[in-house]
Amino acid sequence: MKKVVTCSQMKLLDHGTIHNMHVPSLVLMERAALATAEEIRKYLEKKNGSGNLKKERILTVCGFGNNGGDGIAIARLLHLAGIRSEIYLAGNPDKMTEETRHQWDIAMSYQVPVMNNPVWDEYTVIVDGIFGVGLSREITGNYKEIIDHMNEAPAYKAAVDIPSGIHGDTGAVLGTAFEADLTVTFAYKKRGLCLYPGRAYAGRTVVADIGIYDRDRDGSELASKAAWHIEKSDMKTLPARKPWGNKGTFGKVLLVAGSKGMCGAACLSASAALHGGAGMVKIQTVEENRIPLQSLLPEAMLTSEFDEEANKKNLNWCDVLVIGPGLGTEGSGKERMLWFLENGAKAGKPVILDADGLNILAMHPQWMKFIGEQTILTPHMGEMSRLCGLNVSELKEDPVARAYQYAEKSGGVLVLKDACTVVTDRNEKLYLNLSGNSGMATAGSGDVLSGIIASVLCMYLSCEEERELSYKAAMAVYIHGLCGDIAREKKGSHGMTAKDMIEALPEVLKLAEVQSKG
Ligand SMILES: NC(=O)C1=CN([C@@H]2O[C@H](COP(=O)(O)OP(=O)(O)OC[C@H]3O[C@@H](n4cnc5c(N)ncnc54)[C@H](O)[C@@H]3O)[C@@H](O)[C@H]2O)[C@@H](O)CC1
Ligand SMILES: [K+]
């Protein structure tokens, strides 16, 4: 897992390194500049082979904050490497920070060329050192014009720390923003580089170690408030299947799903749970679905019984409940959701509440009392809007804040599905997901996710290692994204379907097994 920080957390870390560890600010700046210049040089060498770089011309646009100081140092390093490198100062030089002023003096001593009226399309690389984590308001006027010129230029574009104009905490565009091909960010990814639209503006993101001291690495306040993103190497921590296990010990999933004329969602969710390694899956549905479901998915069991005795038997049997795919919001769907939500909570079973399960909850907020620490809610933006009464654009302005609020209110684990899915719980554990692609925005994708979450919960059933429910949910979201990435590779983002993601699931889980064998 890698840490993701907010701008204020990053500033605290910078401050701590400088003032508590006595590392001079200029040392950090030099390391930031070295890392960025190195990435630019690598790009140029890839483009030109090891041949000469005479045709290259680099313009670094610098603000007067420390992001500008990084920029000036980058321009100097490239100049000293014999590459044509020029500086353009955006903003009022009288307002330069002490460090940036220092960088300016060094650059002037080395006679780094300074442009006053650059011809934008003469450059092969444009570097954005205007604003970093200090951006605090909308970009307007002269700055906006400059950024628009930079965007229109045909050059390769590299951003220092974060593209100017992207809000480092929310990923929102403040007025306008630099459209980078490459962003070299320092110490940790910033939230705004993970969330959209910021992530799209950042291009390829490289995290450079610049020697920031993080006393919070293990457990104090900043670490517990930081966000995390799961990466491929974390999959080796997935519990291995015990050689002496059987289908009963690998987890039993009860799926309360499907309604008359609606069996597809139940089928996808059940199929994902089975491909994800759940030992047994039973679908509690309506009798009309028996023939299609049993023909489509003979591995799953099916029951259409719905009375106190049968329900209790099924609830006792299962380890994990999924409630909602294709359930419908009226009639038997509502009754089935209420019975299993209420009694699942009383029995302390983990419940994944998805799709129509969430829509029914939105219509009956009094049932929120059955949501607890063992409940995972998996709304997409539309369902979240119905649950919390805010419209989708309000949610998208700051999805993390809205997710925190709802997790706190509901007491459950919230999986807020979007291009960057946010997972959080009432303890403010926060995960931002970086796997997946836009091809996954297709019918049935959410049903697949609920099945994968159920299967990941099953993996941990006979495992001694304690993991929080939010971590397991985040891991499932990450796996789901990898399935989407494989499906896109095979079928392309237009043609891939939810079924392709399920087909990719064994391949993804095999990767975990290979990794854990070392
Ligand atoms: N010593 C440190 O603190 C380090 C800082 N580093 C760099 O410094 C950056 C942060 O530097 P700063 O905190 O100086 O902040 P920035 O360089 O991001 O700029 C902030 C300045 O811009 C102004 N500003 C903000 N939004 C504006 C807007 N929309 N229009 C016009 N002016 C606006 C602010 O009032 C402030 O003066 C990081 O992103 C990173 O690139 C790195 O060099 C590593 C070490
Ligand atoms: K920048």
UniProtKB/TrEMBL annotation:
Cofactor(s) required, per the database record: K(+); Mg(2+)
Cofactor binding: number and manner: Binds 1 potassium ion per subunit.
Keywords for the protein's UniProt record, in alphabetical order: ATP-binding, Isomerase, Lyase, Metal-binding, Multifunctional enzyme, NAD, NADP, Nucleotide-binding, Potassium
Positions contributing to K(+) binding: N67, D128, S164
Residues that bind (6S)-NADPHX: 66-70, 132-138, 143, 161, 265, 326, 380, 447
SUPFAM superfamilies: Ribokinase-like (SSF53613), YjeF N-terminal domain-like (SSF64153)
Annotated YjeF C-terminal domain residues: 230-512
Start and end residues of each YjeF N-terminal domain: 10-218
EC number, as in UniProt: 4.2.1.136, 5.1.99.6
Top-rank taxon: Bacteria
Catalytic activities: (6R)-NADHX = (6S)-NADHX; (6S)-NADPHX + ADP = AMP + phosphate + NADPH + H(+); (6R)-NADPHX = (6S)-NADPHX; (6S)-NADHX + ADP = AMP + phosphate + NADH + H(+)
Positions that bind AMP: K417, D418, A419, C420, T421, G446
Record's subunit section: Homotetramer.
HAMAP family found in the cross-reference section: NADHX_dehydratase (MF_01965), NADHX_epimerase (MF_01966)
Its biological purpose: Catalyzes the epimerization of the S- and R-forms of NAD(P)HX, a damaged form of NAD(P)H that is a result of enzymatic or heat-dependent hydration. This is a prerequisite for the S-specific NAD(P)H-hydrate dehydratase to allow the repair of both epimers of NAD(P)HX.
Family listed: Belongs to the NnrE/AIBP family.
Protein name as annotated: Bifunctional NAD(P)H-hydrate repair enzyme
Recorded name of the encoding gene: nnrD
